[in-house]
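Subject: design request, 226 residues
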């Protein structure tokens, strides 16, 4: 279950050891040369990598045979990255054992019905960057690097921002005109992912909202924030 290809259809996961190494989920803090920032493990990587892995195996003609994915959280410096890594490891260890999990539920984790304040919901923000590296060029030069940047504007990403994305995804399926343009419609349905079910239709809807923005551009022209 720990494999990023746990959700991939049988026989479709990559087998090349070098490629599988690129899929390995980050477990420590390290410096990322693309963003030039220190990073720590992402608590969502265990879920997100599996979804991306399924997308890649469902649409190999779009992702290519050499595609790999991993994710991490940007930090302000090496100290913050080390502290964040330690905190994630400690929190994860506490969740593994019933007594400490009970303590977290009683004193740390939010209760049912609890959530962020209205101020936080309306003023929160977040930046999500996905750096992509293209194939090496014919002359041996490294492939081009581009960045997909998604921004949450005046929306707490864990509450209002997530709700906004869920609504836009639902509208892709609920509105007949939008549903007819989705790749999932052309595929005939199935156990799909957001990318393979909704694709560009969802991206276009996101860019029409006031709380979400989605853009793609060269890494060299991108200002990394957050």
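Subject: RE: design request

Done. Sequence follows.
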């Amino acid at each position: 279950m720990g494999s990023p290809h746990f959700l991939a259809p049988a026989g479709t996961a990559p087998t090349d050891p070098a490629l599988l190494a690129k899929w390995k989920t980050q477990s420590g803090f390290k410096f990322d040369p693309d963003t030039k920032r220190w990073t720590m493990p992402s608590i969502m990587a265990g879920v997100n990598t599996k979804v991306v892995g399924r997308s890649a195996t469902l649409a190999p003609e779009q992702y290519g045979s050499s595609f790999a994915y991993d994710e991490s959280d940007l930090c302000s410096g090496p100290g913050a990255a080390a502290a964040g890594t330690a905190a994630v490891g400690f929190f994860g260890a506490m969740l593994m054992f019933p007594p400490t999990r009970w303590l977290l539920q009683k004193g740390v984790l939010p209760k049912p019905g609890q959530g962020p304040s209205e101020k936080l919901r309306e003023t929160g923000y977040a930046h999500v960057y996905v750096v992509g590296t293209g194939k090496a060029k014919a002359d041996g030069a490294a492939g081009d690097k581009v960045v997909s940047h998604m921004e949450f504007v005046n929306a707490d990403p864990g509450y209002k921002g997530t709700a906004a994305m869920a609504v836009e995804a639902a509208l892709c399926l609920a509105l007949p005109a939008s549903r007819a343009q989705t790749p999932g419609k052309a595929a005939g349905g199935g156990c799909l992912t957001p990318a393979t079910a909704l694709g560009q239709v969802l991206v276009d809807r996101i860019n029409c909202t006031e709380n979400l923005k989605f853009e793609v551009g060269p890494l060299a022209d991108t200002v990394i924030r957050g």
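Strands lie at 30-32, 37-41, 72-75, 126-133, 145-152, 212-218.
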